[in-house]
């Protein structure tokens, strides 16, 4: 079974130009800069609305395998989803320092960057990348 979300040849710049909310567009630029700096990878579109950085290969116990981004984000209506692939239990010390947010399994949901400490978010992204490098074959990043 193939992944639904895969890297595409879509233009990150063209996608960013479609973000109507000025604050979300500015926040997306900052997130792009942070993630590119931390990973050392250029942004790539994953699916139609996710900007990802780096790539790793995974193999599950079931034998299913594939490639996914190391970290990424998606500006969505009313929030920004930040993808922290190993989840948040790898950085329990950082989460209380982050600021106003919600989490899913591997998603960090924030309304705007001004709600969080961007330096702490950068540390969280860096920790995520380090953990992924320990656990998986990293193809880029």
Question: Averaging pLDDT over every residue, what do you get?
Answer: 92
Task: Report the portion of residues in β strands.
Answer: 25-35%
C-alpha geometry: globular
- How many alpha or pi helices? 4
Question: What would you say about this model in short?
Answer:
With 141 residues, the chain is an alpha+beta fold. It is built from four helices and nine strands, in the order ααββββββαββαβ. Helix content is 33%, strand content 27%.
Notable features of this structure?
27% strand; three-stranded antiparallel β-sheet; single chain; globular; Aspartate Aminotransferase, domain 1; alpha+beta
Topology diagram in text:
Blueprint: H1 12-17, H2 22-39, E1 44-46, E2 50-53, E3 55-59, E4 65-68, E5 71-76, E6 79-84, H3 95-98, E7 102-103, E8 107-110, H4 118-135, E9 137-140
Antiparallel strand pairs: 1-2, 2-5, 3-4, 3-9, 5-6, 6-8, 7-8
